Amino acid sequence: MQDEVSRSHYHRVITNTSLKQDNVFSKDNKDLAKCYERWGRVLAVMDSNIFDVYGEQIEAYFEHHKLDLKIHKTMIGEKAKSMETLLSIVDSMTEFGIFRKV
Question: How far apart are alpha carbons 16 and 7 in whole angstroms?
């Protein structure tokens, strides 16, 4: 089974990419950690159901690689697509220290 992680990070622009590979959260796999080394921290925005399945594994992975992790859990689906949901994600980004430079 393949693990699939969508990740967002900020450096002058916000980018969204997908990393698809087996055992992405294996502590021996450094690929994902390398993406965040320069910042030393990670903000993960994820569906609560994904957190229920992978949360402990994700937390252990980033702890092992000495990267600070903040997880923003949200609901995904038509009913959850609202301004309130969007603003809660933006609030997490602001608290995390992500801001836009022009």
Answer: 6
Distance CA 46, CA 54 (A): 10
Looking at residue 41, its pLDDT comes to: 94
CATH class assigned to 3-96: alpha beta
In the numeric block, the tokens 């402990």 are attached to 56
pTM of the model: 0.72
Give the pLDDT confidence score for residue 52 in this predicted structure: 93
Domain edges within the chain:
3-96
Q: Which residues of the chain have pLDDT under 70?
A: 1-20, 100-102
DSSP strands (E only) in 1-102: 3-11, 13-21, 41-47, 68-74
> In the prediction, which pLDDT does 7 show?
39
Tell me phi and psi for residue 29, to 5 degrees. Answer: -90, 110
Q: How many Å apart are CA 94 and CA 101, to the nearest integer?
A: 13
Count CA atoms within 13 Å of residue 1 on its CB side: 2
